[in-house]
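Please check what follows.
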Amino acid sequence: MNTLYFLMAEFETVTPALADICEKYLGMKPATAEKKALLGELSLPTFRLSESQKAPRLIHLEDLASHIDKARQAGRELYDYINK
């Protein structure tokens, strides 16, 4: 399964706004995600396309796909360990 492909189909862009992905994929409200991103405490990198603070904070879907795949792998390893 290609996680990136499905994310691109869902968002129809390679750089969705952090606010558009944070609740579903990070389990937090946009304001919390924004604060964590500002402090460098978010589990994936974010960026703005301009220096304006009003510019939306974006993520790259390759980073989100990698984050999802790593979390899945960790869950799979735990499952396999418990079910030996």
